[in-house]
Amino acid sequence: MEQKEKKAAASWSGKKKAGVVVAAVVVIYALISIFFHFHFFPGTEINGYACGFRSVGKVKEMIREGVDAYSITITEREGRQEKVNSSQVGLAFTDDGKLEQIKAEQKPYAWITFPFIKKEYPDGVTLKVDENAYDETFHSLDAFDAELVTAPVDAWSRYNKETNSYDIVEEIYGNTVKEEEFYQALKEAILRQDGVIDIEKAGCYENPVYKKDSEEVIQSNDTLNRYVSSDIIYDFDDRTQELTGKTIHKWLSVTKKFKVRVDEEKAAKYVEKLAEKYDTVGIERHFTSIIGNDVDVEGGTYGWTIDQEAETEKLIKQIKKGKQVKREPEYAHYAKSRKKNDIGDTYVEVDLGSQYMWFYKDGKTLVSTPVVTGNTSLGRGTPTGVYYILYKTTDYTLTGENYASHVDYWLPFTHSGVGIHDASWRSSYGGGIYTYDGSHGCVNTPYNAVRTIYNNIESTYPVVVHW
């Protein structure tokens, strides 16, 4: 009986203790719940602020202090940095009830589950900047100082005169900021209260589009080198003129998309100067007469004329081939010789002053004869200059105003109808006949002399007419 009483007493004592423990736990749980009714759960982080065990009021106070002390470091290229603090941009905390809302979401009676519930709120605080202050501060940053800013430059090709070749120059990144993008990125970083913003990592720099290893740059450089490797030698028989890359490179340009262009206008200018130097139609010639007199004669239709348009086109094509070549230019008009003295050693010479004509063939005089030229008293003088035989024909009738004259041999040398022919109606030649009884401009020639010329000359051969 005594043992049963002892067991009963021990049992009651155990229940009593358990009840006390339970009561204590309930009280503690209630007290903690009451505490978390006014405080955030442990580990709560709002916009980077550690808010655990703090009341809403204390968190607001902490945030205001944090905003007042806040600054952001802007990391720029070339190792430069600059800071912006909250006062410069008018950064301020907006008490819009978000903190209370977060606190309400944390049910105080559920505090025991806090290890498993959400405790990070990156958007739990509303901050604002003063737009005017921000705009002014932003645009006064050193990052936008014109004296400190370098624009990006694409890689490009530079001509080396010593080597007559192009080398690729590495691109320049510079430090030009994309203003619109960075304006927004910096503002967002400030509103998040980030400690640092790197313009490079934010992708807010303008960068070169084409780098030294870009395919377009490499191909463009190769093309430039091919073009300047051209060596074009113009052949003028006893003279040559060479065009090399040292001149050609001045005509080359590269587009923004790295297409190589040959400046057609500059090429045309070169051809124009080539023509000025080597064209001979109508130029003044220093001519030694068959009888040894030094004569200056200009005008006429005989000589060489470069076809400038055709030659410019051909020249550009030749440059693009990038080869060494010796060639003649494209001609619009040809002569019998391409030497500096393009009259050569087969030609007709008419001396108006002495009224004499010679036919010189392959360096030998075949004809030497007096003639009658255009009537100077009537303004029909034979035109001076260097011409060429247009064609030759026999049994021909010369016609003009109020006359028609038959000739056996006709060799015209101007397009206006002046030429060499026999004149059966004349019995004498030479002297001063031309001054009062001259022709309409033609060279009246004794029959045997004109026949000899006719039988030994072909079209295109020169006729030199001078005083």
How would the blueprint of this fold be written?
Layout (H helix, E strand, L loop, with lengths): L1 H37 L6 E2 L2 E2 L5 H14 L1 E5 L5 E5 H4 L2 E3 L3 H8 L14 E2 L4 E3 L2 H9 L16 E5 L4 E5 L9 H13 L4 E3 L16 H14 L2 E5 L4 E4 L1 H4 L3 E3 L5 E3 L1 H15 L6 E4 L5 E4 L7 E2 L1 H14 L2 E4 L3 E3 L13 E5 L4 E6 L2 E7 L14 E4 L4 E8 L2 E10 L6 E4 L11 H4 L5 E3 L1 H10 L5 E5 L1
Parallel strand pairs: 1-6, 3-10, 11-18, 20-28, 26-27
Antiparallel strand pairs: 1-2, 3-4, 5-7, 8-9, 11-12, 13-14, 15-16, 17-19, 20-21, 21-22, 23-28, 24-25, 25-26
Tell me briefly what this model is:
With 467 residues, the chain is α+β, with helices and mostly antiparallel strands. Helix content is 31%, strand content 25%. It has a five-stranded mixed β-sheet with strand order 22-21-20-28-23, with helices on one face.
What report would you give on this structure?
The chain is rod-shaped, with a radius of gyration of 52 Å. It has helices at residues 2-38, 56-69, 86-89, 98-105, 131-139, 179-191, 215-228, 245-248, 264-278, 308-321, 434-437, 447-456, and strands spanning 45-46, 49-50, 71-75, 81-85, 92-94, 120-121, 126-128, 156-160, 165-169, 196-198, 231-235, 240-243, 252-254, 260-262, 285-288, 294-297, 305-306, 324-327, 331-333, 347-351, 356-361, 364-370, 385-388, 393-400, 403-412, 419-422, 443-445, 462-466. It has a 5-stranded mixed sheet with strand order 22-21-20-28-23, covered by helices on one side. Helix 9 (264-278) packs across helix 10 (308-321). The protein starts with a helix and ends with a strand. The chain is α+β, with helices and mostly antiparallel strands and 467 residues long. Helix content is 31%, strand content 25%. The mean pLDDT is 94.
